[in-house]
Design brief:
The protein is built from no helices and 9 strands. With about 100 residues, the protein is mainly beta. It has one domain: Jelly Rolls (Sandwich). It has a 5-stranded mixed beta sheet with strand order 3-2-8-5-6, with no helix packed on it. Strands 1-9-4-7 form a 4-stranded antiparallel beta sheet, with no helix packed on it. The two termini are about 15 Å apart.
Length: about 100
């Protein structure tokens, strides 16, 4: 593996029906509904996997009028031209939803 690999990943179980904030570019202490990376870096590309349907409701400070559906057991991929995504908010629809987020 090269030493110039950037990005991180977060995996967790969203226990309750709620909005979960995942920070890419900020370090902090995890809570039940807010997750932080080990190394902060904005993203040009991220992938979300979920074992239940969920919704991407916010990207940075932009709240979507019509949230993007994250279909269970399918990769939801977003790509940008520049390092611009610092956080996302995912809304779960089923308790105990397993979420996996990977970004570069």
């Amino acid at each position: 593996m090269g030493t110039n690999l950037k990005g991180d990943n977060i995996e967790f179980t969203a226990v309750a029906l709620d909005d979960y904030t995942i920070w890419f570019a900020e370090i902090g202490t995890d809570t039940t509904t807010v997750k932080y990376p080990d190394e902060a870096t904005s993203a040009t590309k991220f992938t979300i996997r979920s074992d239940q349907n969920a919704f991407l409701v916010q990207l940075n400070d932009k709240v979507f009028t019509n949230p993007c559906k994250i279909t269970q057991n399918k990769a939801h991929i977003e790509t940008r031209d520049a390092l611009s995504v610092s956080k996302i908010i995912i809304r779960t629809t089923v308790a105990n939803t397993k979420l996996k987020i990977r970004w570069f």
